Amino acid sequence: MYWELELILFLFLLTTAYIALEADDLLIAVVMLTIFSFLMALLFTVMGAVDVGFTEAVVGAGVTGILLVIAIYQTKFTTVD
To answer: What is the reported pLDDT for 81?
Structure first.
């Protein structure tokens, strides 16, 4: 239906996935995965699956992102020289 918008969302999805995989900082990776999940929710909504998009936004971008950030800050970091 809106193939131009879907193509732009796919390109942003690929970009955020690549940044999340190549990030050295865990917080950057979690933020990129949260953005990826939100973009997936937008893509589902554009494709007509509003209920799936809403669920992805709540669970994927919301709850999972918050839990991963909490897990990062609860973990003690040690540096190896």
So the answer is: 60
Entry pTM: 0.84
- Does any domain span residue 47? yes
**The pLDDT value given to residue 1:** 61
Q: Examine residue 22 and state whether it is found in any structural domain, yes or no.
A: yes
Q: What is the pLDDT of residues 18-55, one digit of tens each?
A: 999 999 988 999 999 999 999 999 999 999 999 999 99
CA angle 26/31/33 to nearest 5° reads 95
Which residues fall within 8 angstroms of residue 37, CB to CB, at 6 or more apart?
A: 56, 57, 60, 61, 64, 65
**79 in a structural domain:** no
In-domain check, residue 65: yes
Total structural domains in the chain?
Answer: 1
Q: Per-residue DSSP letters for 26-70?
A: HHHHHHHHHHHHHHHHHHHHHTT-HHHHHHIIIIIIIIHHHHHHH
